[in-house]
Amino acid sequence: MARERCSAALLLIDFINEFEFDGAERLFPRALAAARATNELRRRAKSAGIPAIYCNDNFGKWRSDFRSLLERCLSSGVRGEPIARLLRPEEDDYFVLKPKHSAFHATSLPVLLAHLGARTLVFSGVAGDYCVLFTAQDAYMEGYRVVVPRDCVASEPDEDNEAALKHLEKVCKAETAPSA
Fold first, then answer.
1. Do residues 151 and 176 touch, judged by C-beta distance below 8 A?
2. I need a surface site. Which of 1, 95, 96, 125 has the fewest CB within 10 A?
3. 93-118 pLDDT tens trace
4. CA–CA separation, 167 and 149 (whole Å)
5. Domain ranges in the chain?
């Protein structure tokens, strides 16, 4: 179980997702591989008392909440169902719905991180070259230590993922070694 105060936090960005958008069929296999690595990382983080924070797009459904989004993604026949099942949040996990690419923009994430005392953020999710990138850049701008395990993020194509990781290494001083 995660402690109420912890110097680090694991962010899971947009994994809870129906994967019903242009390019989703190409991104999904990469996202599933990243989700598998993230699931193992989440297990290790939890055993160390590091909290998991799900940062999710509302996908334009402005009257939704995280639990209804999760239920939609767990429905049979939804492309994202295997990832939602694999990374299904636990009772002690946190969640933040985001209206834009960055989980810092117009959300409660900064207040939650201050409450937890987290200064190191470990990023996982999709897409590495959009929402993970924007959130990690904002974290760096706010003075957080940025860690992005390269096997825990996915983009389409792979070259864009690699470019995002190189950018985060260079500009945000991010650590991008694999999670294992």
1. no
2. 1
3. 999 999 999 999 999 999 999 999 99
4. 14
5. 8-172
- Mean pLDDT, the chain, rounded, equals 94
Nearest to 118 by CA among 104, 101, 128, 102: 104
pTM of the full structure: 0.95
CATH classification number, 8-172, choose in 3.40.50.300, 3.30.470.20, 3.30.70.270, 3.40.50.850: 3.40.50.850
pLDDT tens figures, 63-72? 667 788 899 9
